[in-house]
């Protein structure tokens, strides 16, 4: 009898370079420039072997004590287990050279991520091509949360991907704004993609992982610390076309994202707030230092979008009937004094620079339009009641 049992599908073994980079992502902290410089000379597999063998290459920063620190963390590391762990939660580990790798991260130089652990749908490279960061204070005001949500929703409706850090406050409002209109959003975490932090945003982070993308430089199971948040910000800045700061105090971490964006020649933008608010002080300082003031998504996309295709509409006040007057008529109207006694035609002619006959003609036009009235030989403005 034929065996009807389906054949067992065995996952293919990860290639050595991916395994080595997965190990290095657990061996070092994000943005480790020493490892970054080494990876410019050798493959990741050779770097790992050199650490095991204690072979210190001749380049700045890697000395014997640092090498000993790497070696002390080597025992017990299992990159294959990490790769399987992220696969089981629907994720993957992206490394330079993959078609999904965003090449703009290479602008970070030696601080470029060793690799990125991600969960969610869509190509990170393609999504990042049209992305903008919306960041700000964790302890934001109702005004800040409203503005961040509205801006992000508008950006998502225009086809832009909203990137933020999945933290409390402005980050959460930005993600929710994009999700609310069925948009795409990316959460860049300071912990493993299988760790929901902060706890109060568990459901939001889950939704981002389903509807958008979660990514981190840190391997599965890693928890955040103060320095990892700061290092995470450089990835947000490099990944996106520009950074918008909605609310930030003078010492806010969101400002570090904007500063990195500026250093990387990305657009930096700020939303003004009340001058009495401490949470606006950092944004106002950012604007004074050269960031662009923005108030709506159209102004953001005009800066970071395609030249000539993403122009913001010109803002103008309402058109008043007086604005439609012919130039000569407008000049005569400007010459008529507001005083109750008015002025004779001769005086209006001198003031407007027009011949008396033409002034008289224009005055009668203005009478018909209800702007002026005649009292004897004098003309005066009609007083509106």
TrEMBL record:
One of its GO terms (biological process) is DNA-mediated transformation. Residues 93-303 form the Smf/DprA SLOG domain. Residues 330-375 form the HTH iclR-type domain. GO terms for molecular function: DNA binding. InterPro entries: DprA (IPR003488), DrpA_SLOG (IPR057666), Tscrpt_reg_IclR_N (IPR005471), WH-like_DNA-bd_sf (IPR036388), WH_DNA-bd_sf (IPR036390). It holds the Pfam family HTH_IclR. It comes from the Bacteria. Belongs to the DprA/Smf family. This is DNA-protecting protein DprA. It comes from Streptomyces kaniharaensis.
């Amino acid at each position: 009898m034929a065996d009807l049992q389906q054949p067992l599908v065995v996952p293919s073994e990860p290639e050595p370079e991916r395994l080595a980079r997965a190990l290095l992502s657990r061996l070092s902290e994000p943005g480790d420039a020493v490892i970054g410089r080494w990876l410019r000379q050798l493959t990741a597999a050779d770097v790992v072997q050199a650490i095991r063998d204690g072979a210190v290459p001749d380049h700045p920063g890697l000395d014997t004590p640092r090498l000993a620190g790497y070696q002390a963390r080597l025992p017990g590391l299992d990159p294959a287990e990490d790769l399987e762990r992220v696969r089981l939660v629907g994720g993957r580990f992206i490394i330079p050279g993959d078609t999904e790798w965003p090449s703009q991260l290479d602008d970070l130089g030696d601080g470029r991520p060793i690799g990125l652990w991600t969960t969610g749908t869509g190509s990170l490279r393609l999504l990042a091509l049209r992305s903008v960061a919306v960041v700000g204070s964790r302890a934001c005001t109702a005004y800040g949360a409203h503005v961040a949500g509205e801006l992000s929703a508008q950006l998502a409706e225009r086809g832009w991907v909203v990137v933020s850090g999945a933290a409390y406050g402005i980050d959460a409002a930005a993600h929710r704004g994009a999700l609310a209109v069925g948009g795409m959003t990316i959460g860049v975490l300071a912990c493993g993609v299988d760790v929901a932090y902060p706890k109060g945003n568990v459901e939001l982070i889950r939704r981002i992982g389903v509807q958008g993308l979660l990514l981190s430089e840190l391997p599965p199971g890693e928890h955040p610390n103060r320095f990892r948040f700061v290092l995470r910000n450089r990835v947000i800045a490099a990944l996106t076309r520009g950074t918008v700061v909605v609310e930030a105090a003078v010492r806010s971490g969101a400002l570090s994202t904007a500063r990195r964006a500026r250093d990387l020649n990305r657009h930096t933008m700020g939303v003004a707030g009340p001058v009495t608010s401490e949470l606006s002080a950092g944004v106002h300082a950012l604007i004074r230092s050269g960031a662009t003031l923005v108030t709506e998504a159209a102004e953001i996309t005009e800066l970071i979008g395609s030249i000539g295709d993403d122009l913001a509409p010109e803002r103008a006040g309402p058109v008043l009937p007086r604005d439609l007057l012919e130039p000569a008529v407008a000049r005569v109207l400007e010459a008529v004094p507001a005083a109750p006694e008015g002025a004779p035609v001769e005086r209006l002619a001198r003031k407007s620079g027009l011949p008396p006959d033409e002034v008289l003609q224009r005055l009668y036009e203005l009478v018909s339009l209800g702007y002026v009235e005649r009292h004897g030989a004098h003309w005066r403005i009609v007083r509106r009641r």
